[in-house]
Amino acid sequence: MLLDKEKRCKSEPGASLGYREEIPEITEAIIRSCEEPGSFTHINHEPIPSRQEVVSIVHALQKLIFPGYFSRESLDATNLRYKIGHSVSRLFDTMAQQIIHSLRHDCFRYDKPCSHCSDQGYETATKLFRAIPDLRRILATDVSAAYDGDPAASSHDEIIFSYPGIFAIAVHRVANILYKDEVPFIPRIMSEYAHSVTGIDIHPGATIGERFAIDHGTGVVIGETTRIGNNVRIYQGVTLGALSLPPDAGNRLKGKKRHPTIEDDVIIYSGTTILGGDTVIGTRSVIGGNVWLTESVPPDTLVVMEAPKLSYRASAQKGKTSHDFT
Amino acid sequence: MLLDKEKRCKSEPGASLGYREEIPEITEAIIRSCEEPGSFTHINHEPIPSRQEVVSIVHALQKLIFPGYFSRESLDATNLRYKIGHSVSRLFDTMAQQIIHSLRHDCFRYDKPCSHCSDQGYETATKLFRAIPDLRRILATDVSAAYDGDPAASSHDEIIFSYPGIFAIAVHRVANILYKDEVPFIPRIMSEYAHSVTGIDIHPGATIGERFAIDHGTGVVIGETTRIGNNVRIYQGVTLGALSLPPDAGNRLKGKKRHPTIEDDVIIYSGTTILGGDTVIGTRSVIGGNVWLTESVPPDTLVVMEAPKLSYRASAQKGKTSHDFT
Amino acid sequence: MLLDKEKRCKSEPGASLGYREEIPEITEAIIRSCEEPGSFTHINHEPIPSRQEVVSIVHALQKLIFPGYFSRESLDATNLRYKIGHSVSRLFDTMAQQIIHSLRHDCFRYDKPCSHCSDQGYETATKLFRAIPDLRRILATDVSAAYDGDPAASSHDEIIFSYPGIFAIAVHRVANILYKDEVPFIPRIMSEYAHSVTGIDIHPGATIGERFAIDHGTGVVIGETTRIGNNVRIYQGVTLGALSLPPDAGNRLKGKKRHPTIEDDVIIYSGTTILGGDTVIGTRSVIGGNVWLTESVPPDTLVVMEAPKLSYRASAQKGKTSHDFT
């Protein structure tokens, strides 16, 4: 049958010719659309930050922060100094260049006062690389916290190799350093890359203490002005967000504290939403799953949703007829 | 200790030999399994659509739609015409070829009447490329809407560089053009690629107006027959879905309106589920977070869930004993 | 204005020199941090499992399991035997090597008794490849189940090409074979890769029957000791998880049955959470959306959440003033 079908196939390979003649017109129409007011383009010869480069930087930093885990060649006592040195040396320039591109782009695009981008780029890159030993120490506390609270974790190495929560937190701790130095674009490109890989959306502005663990993680949202203390553990689908906004909120609320404060030793179970800049979850409190909270909770409190009433009916699928139970 | 351990290591590099002898038998067993009825294979010499090519097309179109943002080399007034022209010319053929492969595959596989795939492929590709200026205009409204409603957005450029919502909507607007031209496979490969990158699952059949904004986005599901007006804003975890289905629904309901209609200027907050083909959310209404809706809402209405009762108890973790609060 | 701005730009390209002098000090600080107790590094010359290799293996296995769907070159009756044979032969060694690396790493790192890693690696790889015909048969039932329950699916091929649920289940069925053979790291790297691509988080230890369908899938979590029967269908955001844990749970509960049992022919709608190792959902039962369940359900039962009370108010956005409804 297939051969028969093939014989009957009327497709003609020459069909493209007529259509290709439209390419110049199509091209001109796209170019004209770039000149329209309110259209978004990026047409000037200043270099811009490159998403692709920033993603490479994220993975190179991951290798520096967890030496030996993510390299194809093994790292040992004899080559450690050379490999780390080579890696720092190369990454340092790439990182500085991307920061400079971001600052220059911002400066030219929005006609800002001179940011002394060249100096600032190297200054911030230096600050970031100097912070690596401390980042390593803090991330070791995060790995330990992930292990201590998860019966499914079989070793610390398994967590570093494969847990999305650790990747998201590592990227956040890097992005937050750049955010605090007011680098445009790059912190958010980094955090949205981690969001894409993990489903965990942490705004680079969020302040997060040590021993922070996120289990499973898909659907987690942590807003820009959130403050999280030490030894906090959250599960998939937890939102730490802002209250509903007036229609012009985009402009009016920029920079204000809009997201909650979570004190030390708090656990928040899956699917829970906590909203508002004045909302404080007191130390050692536990918030159960699926809770919707817009007010503060004192320390040492357990908050759970009263189980919603369930309705049980027989014979759900027996008759194989349509059922509408929603 | 490590060296000692190494000395004790009994691993023998020659172990593979005996096992490799099984390769022919393993190969034959896989080949036999390809001949079984009901088994899924794709063994004939007709080309099939390539997921990898379709993903490349998505990124190439992203560069055409937002010129200068995602290229490594900068775009300026002197090279704009050449770069856009070169890009259109190359993409045009790739796009047409993939459409032709999809149509031929469908035609041969399901013994359909001749789809004149060669002509149809170039016809649809032409339609798509001609639509780019209009896509650019509509996506500019989406970018503006994202900016206007989000205090965490620091510039329009940041949104284009990094917001998953904009990527998902851009891919949807392209996939929807191919869906309406009844191109098999490709629209869904595109939308599932965007789903994979963003956690936002928009069926290519959904009809979506201008100034559409999705914030955070992970877990959003928008079904095939959903209709969304202009200036609608939704948050993470919103489902616009179908009511529960009878067991044989797969066949019986294909093509029917199964998903809701959202009129202009509606806002839907995080975690809300709206179901059913007859459900209409009236213009300017606001649906709060975590709402479960299966009926229509008139215009200018605010619908919120009555806060579920919370139970507060002291000393959640003080004694460090097991607690069961679920 | 742009040119003017450029003229005023004070950025100096020589700025890097002073900063680069700090590279040796930065390098030494990172190396010192690798020697600190409690720090995580992987510095010895034993090879470790490579995440990148494991991801390549996943995609190569996908091509073997669904022949012809994911290759650039087409597969036909004349080249099938050579291509499958070549692919098995190459993959066999790569898979065995990665298993050997994982076993050796585990053995050296945690000073375990000899695992006879070389033999064990080839033994397990052989077992996995021998299982492919059966995996193909079971995955064909999964594809059919996905098609039968989804009015938006236009063909079985579309499901194989693009549905995240099928990818996640295919990867799970492979990872589960390695998990049952107690291969360290690799099963979890595979399942977390699928999680990253699909938003569906299935622990490799979960036991899952035939005709398993996951629709949309983002946010699904299926825990390590879950047991799922045949012909079960679940939707996005469903968690099959553990009850809340005491603080030292990580160690105490390892290996215990902590996650629910779902019997044959059950459907679980979106956003539902089912928790606990003793919780059993009886055969043919249907669990509605957004349900929170911590107890067993008898067979043939329909469980739905009583719709939470909604509050309707007029004029949500009319006055364009701030509204706080949370």
TrEMBL record, chains A, B, C:
Keywords: Acyltransferase, Amino-acid biosynthesis, Transferase. This is Serine O-acetyltransferase. PANTHER family: SERINE ACETYLTRANSFERASE. One of its GO terms (molecular function) is acyltransferase activity. GO terms for biological process: amino acid biosynthetic process. It comes from Desulfobotulus alkaliphilus. The keyword Transferase applies.
